[in-house]
Write a structure and sequence with these properties.
With about 375 residues, the chain is an alpha/beta fold. The protein folds into two domains: about 160 residues, Rossmann fold (3-Layer(aba) Sandwich); about 200 residues, Dehydroquinate synthase-like, alpha domain (Up-down Bundle). The protein has 15 helices and eight strands. The strands form two sheets. The chain has a six-stranded parallel beta sheet with strand order 1-8-5-4-2-3. Helix 6 packs parallel to helix 8 and helix 7 packs antiparallel against helix 8. It is globular. It starts with 8 loop residues before the first strand and ends with a helix. Bound molecules: fe (ii) ion. The site of fe (ii) ion (FE2) has 5 residues, from helix 6 and helix 10.
Length: about 375
């Protein structure tokens, strides 16, 4: 059985100019970027590449319609390499461009057929959450469905990931908080996944301890201190990406997808809503297993009793970002069963990785408890 797979070369590069020189960018490169980051750090030093911005295609997280328009523009030139500069949404959209396929974008996400890679991809993350720069996963919202769908296929591994903390310096606090909580969730879901093993646990454990240690420092020194720790958060999110690319994420992501899909709640924030309730359920349902090991790691990081880890974790994360009620996003009681059905029917890819076989009734209770 394959225990560990990582197909992306990881580079730590200090500045954009060093990247441009080392990778010899030319007119056969197609750049997909977050506009503000590109204009701040790259515009003056790149001259002969075709550049498009995610905002040209739409706002928010990727949809099949946005990816369709991007694929259309990409096919107008003869590009050999794609450079994605941005958060998880930018990198996830760019991943689809490497594929040799005439299928519609929604077919790619729904049919899950064999995928053939025909272009190179360099991924440069500008947030500290998704880990998409080292994962074989792309996520999009499909217009004919009210939820998000993912493809997990080795053809989607970026060829190179560039870790450049400098690019995160202008990351707003809210984006930082939601991304870093998302990275913590990747690491925790990976750690207890049914596919977790000693190799993936190495990366997920390190990511969990780095993120919780850094959050502790922010709690002590004040919110503005996050800017001094972005390099740590970026590496931690990269480690979490390496871990979950092997194990998948689980029920937290699955349960969050309808909330993001219907009410456009940011990915990390939607996941955050369900993190502690899902893990408390895991802990209450099956105490012997990986959750035991996770509880010890969390109790050490949070300096609390093992029996209190999830209430303490929620308190600590509340300092970083206060948690909302689901009604604050517009979600209604009528949505609960619709969302739970959608999770059970459409998110088996994620649910099968979960620590327990979570039932529809348990999902309904998790939603209901958040009102
Ligand atoms: Fe995530």
């Amino acid at each position: 059985m394959l225990s560990f797979n990582q197909q992306t070369k990881i580079y730590q590069i200090a500045t954009p100019i060093e990247f441009v020189e080392q990778f010899k960018l030319s007119n056969t490169d197609f750049i997909v970027a977050s506009k503000s980051c590109y204009e701040t750090y790259f515009a003056k030093i790149i001259s002969d590449c075709t550049v498009v911005f995610k905002s040209d295609y739409g706002i928010g997280e990727p949809t099949d319609e946005m990816i369709y328009a991007l694929r259309n523009d990409f096919t107008k030139g003869n590009y050999q390499r794609i450079v994605a500069i941005g958060g998880g949404s930018v990198i996830d959209m760019a991943k689809i461009l490497v594929l040799k396929s005439n299928d519609s974008t929604s077919d790619l996400f729904e049919k899950k057929q064999d995928l053939i890679k025909s272009k190179q991809l360099i991924a440069i993350p500008t947030t500290c959450g998704a880990g998409s720069e080292v994962s074989n996963i792309s996520i999009a919202k499909l217009s004919n469905k009210k939820s998000k769908y993912g493809i997990a296929n080795d053809a989607l591994y970026p060829d190179c990931a560039i870790i450049m903390p400098m690019l995160l310096q202008n990351l707003p606090y809210f984006a930082f908080a939601t991304s870093s909580i998302d990275a913590l969730i990747h690491a925790m879901e990976s750690f207890v996944s049914s596919k977790s093993n000693i190799y993936t646990s190495l990366f997920s454990t390190k990511a969990i301890t780095m993120i919780l240690d850094a959050i502790k420092q922010i709690e002590i020194k004040g919110q503005d201190h996050y800017k001094d720790l972005l390099g740590d958060f970026l590496v931690a999110s990269n480690f979490a990406g390496i871990a979950f690319s092997n194990t998948g994420t689980g029920a937290v992501h699955a349960i969050s997808y309808p909330l993001s899909g219907v009410y456009d709640v940011m990915h990390g924030q939607a996941n955050y809503q369900f993190l502690c309730s899902v893990f408390q359920l895991y802990n209450d349902s099956k105490q012997k297993g990986k959750i035991d090991e996770l509880n010890i790691i969390l109790a050490n990081c949070l300096n609390c009793e093992i029996s209190d880890v999830y209430t303490t974790l929620q308190e600590r994360l509340n300092v970083l970002l206060p948690i909302n009620k689901l009604s604050d996003y517009g979600m209604t009681f009528d949505d609960i069963v619709i969302f739970a059905n959608s999770v059970v029917i459409d998110q088996q890819r994620l649910l099968k990785n979960s620590y327990i076989d979570i039932t529809k009734q348990q999902i309904i209770k998790i939603y209901t408890d958040q009102f």
